[in-house]
């Protein structure tokens, strides 16, 4: 009976056990799941299988391998973490995981981890407790401890085993940033012992396990972590975190085993962390402290600190918000952007791009590099086409330099991108993405030309950031195939794609464009049509309020600092310089025409624009761009209403005035049906505009304040500054009904 129960548990957790040539193969293939994840139940079954292997005299060693096509173990089951209701409960779960891996590490027979695919979080902690690690050279294989991205720290011994294996500095870089490494770098660090082609992984893992059991010496790249750190230079592993030069990093390597040196190392790391997180994200600092305790007081103390900190973080507001974002983006990956899950996207075998500017070049890059299809770029002249091709080539060159692609791989992908000044090559495209100047007449003319040379089922997608798609579709012979695909600059780095549908857009068109976006590596939200759609619309009042603050005499640097302290990655004036002051000036009238005085841009910037200041692109804006340290250009104050007579305004009020404008406009978008859900609004604001992730997005933030308190603050500013702070009607209704944006 006990054996039958055990077999049922093994099957439920997806384990199979077989002995091959004296080696027990433990294969994990979690039923009904795309990836393997770690849960207490999984750990319990694994422990029972280890016991079975330990008692079997025919078993000399163990190999742990995944049965999934492209996943080893992708981490702990996040759903399980959400069931933990107290810090004590989460701490106990951490201790349980630690004890399980301690037992694995102390197992009497050699254990080899055969890694193919994602080996992340708890999956890497699992592998770290094994005696030997072999990874495949597949691009699907990545290793890392990304817990800080969910507001957590490794909770099953990762903060202790990783530094012991690859050195403190290299471990700090991986744990505190949450980034992943490819197999080649993992081997250089000593994180894995071998990198092999995927087809021979299983065979070689069994051979290595048998060799270890027989006492044969197997080459292990131990100690390479510290050397690799020093060789990376200032932009490498330790340098990225600590800002050290190559020479300084060699010094830090020498000091790592020295108490004084360790203190310097951890003090510098803490200082750099505070500068980056501004105290808004506690997880990296907790991870740093757990590592410090382990290094200075031993593993037992380090594990205890890790478990305690893990418990505190699991129930923290910051982690809850970041986990909610994780689930939101995960859900979006499964959706097709329409009301019916039955709508299927059509295959896109070739993409056409109109416009060779920064946006057009960026779109051509993600289409070729990530979507993996041929791309035809058209611009009005050879110079424009050349700029686009040069931009794409530059992005590939950068990846070759960083060794994320070989030069052959880069050349193969670059060969997918061609260009010209005519419509040659457009006859076979499935989707045309237009990224030309924001002018409706120009877009209508180009659309007419495209429809004459493309197939009847070709989709026309516009990258416009402000022109309503409904107006655009009026110039089309195939309006059902007109849609908006709003990318963000730089396209190769910004994760969001905002897809805009008008009332006549065909569902298959929406589903197809959503699928294109996913293949291009984007987080995709679908919104309904309207001036500015969602992201541009909520950004406009935010930026307008920053301009109002300048008109009130605010110091530029203090204003930017106030919003960075609030949690935005950059301040609004820095953003204005990056986007282009002239671009913002053109969008302003469109918004004012659509929404009236409350969206009217203050006249404070008229002289700045008249002075020819475009921002970074012409190295003349609110800040200096002369190659020295970037700082406010003092001469710009002469163009502002108060001149050089600046006022010291309250930082908290400056931040709140700007942020609440964005939140209030987001609520309007939801109330008017531009947004389909509060979830999409939060994802769009975070991934497209940099709304502070630790606050969860405009709607999570509104719920944390309480809709009634949000209404009170808006009414306060309305009394003080006028109608631009008029609360969204749907917010007033929500407060009256006692509702929140998310279920309580």
From TrEMBL:
Any keyword Signal? no
Highest taxon of the lineage? Bacteria
Question: What region holds the 3-hydroxyacyl-CoA dehydrogenase NAD binding domain?
Answer: 350-529
InterPro entries in alphabetical order: 3-OHacyl-CoA_DH_NAD-bd (IPR006176), 3HC_DH_C (IPR006108), 6-PGluconate_DH-like_C_sf (IPR008927), ClpP/crotonase-like_dom_sf (IPR029045), Enoyl-CoA_hyd/isom_CS (IPR018376), Enoyl-CoA_hydra/iso (IPR001753), FA_oxidation_alpha_subunit (IPR050136), NAD(P)-bd_dom_sf (IPR036291)
The record ties this protein, via PROSITE patterns, to:
ENOYL_COA_HYDRATASE
> What PANTHER family does UniProt report for this protein, alphabetically?
TRIFUNCTIONAL ENZYME SUBUNIT ALPHA, TRIFUNCTIONAL ENZYME SUBUNIT ALPHA, MITOCHONDRIAL
Name of the protein in its database record: enoyl-CoA hydratase
Native source species: Archangium gephyra
